[in-house]
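Just scan my protein:

——
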Amino acid sequence: MGNTINVDNKYFPALGKLFSPMVINSLVWKNYSPYLAEVCSNSGLLDKLDLSMTLGNFFNFIYDLLFKNYRNEYIFKNVIANKILLGKHSLNTSQLLMEFRAGKSKADVVLLNGTSTVYEIKSEYDSFSRLKKQIRSYCDVFDYINVITTNKQANKITSCLPEKVGILVLTERDTISTFRNPKSNKENIKLAILFNSLRKTEYTNIIKRYYGTIPDVPNTIIYKVCKELFCKIPVSTAHDLTINVLKRRSDVKILKDFIEKAPSSTIAYILTIGNQEKQMKTLISILNKELQDFIIPCNIER
């Protein structure tokens, strides 16, 4: 279908936002998204598409259109999810976290298996202005650091990255090739920074597992006391304990069940809602409904 329907290039950035939580969450909870309706109308897709197609097939169509013409951040995230998490690893042993706090930066994608690997996305539409700062933040938190980009940009960023940082390329064939392998950074991880990436339930779990008990102190100082104890754990051990607790942020059983039913274009989004079973159930349900159920002319109030 993608070869027979043409869309003006100026609409690709807008179409790229159809995979955002703003749009999909609105579809899940309201069965309607003003943004989706407006973009389909303005881009001419409303008149070109078969509105009896399922919402899931519509997302696959938009995804293919974007992959060929506008490979934005979501495309990169979805390829990492499909090719690396599901293609090379398994949900039984690995987890993928999106927008993970790392120091003063947010990591685009983090893979947790036997170790921690971060993927910083630099599409052709992204600036490199913050890249050095982001890499410094990641070196404080992760074992392996990668920048994933386009073939044209791979050579450009080589000189501005430490040798231990890997460089990956998203190819035109929907694969990920290795331009340069990353090297372990575990010994340089700063535990005080890593600790700040954790939720209270996570860092107390680590403290209990390592020390055998959680400090019996007032809530006002539990953070401070636990952080001091965390920073006394050997770096490698603290890192590995952290991986174990972070892998529990999502319910593997729930994820596996819904990923098997979901269109491949929506995997990255599903990973962001982790263990929210009700939301995933509703999403899978609406993805099997016809597109016309969610498209209403923009001039009709709802």
User: Anything to note?
Assistant: The mean pLDDT is 92. DSSP finds 15 helices and six strands in the chain. The longest helix spans residues 55-69. Residues 103 and 137 are 5 Å apart (CA to CA).
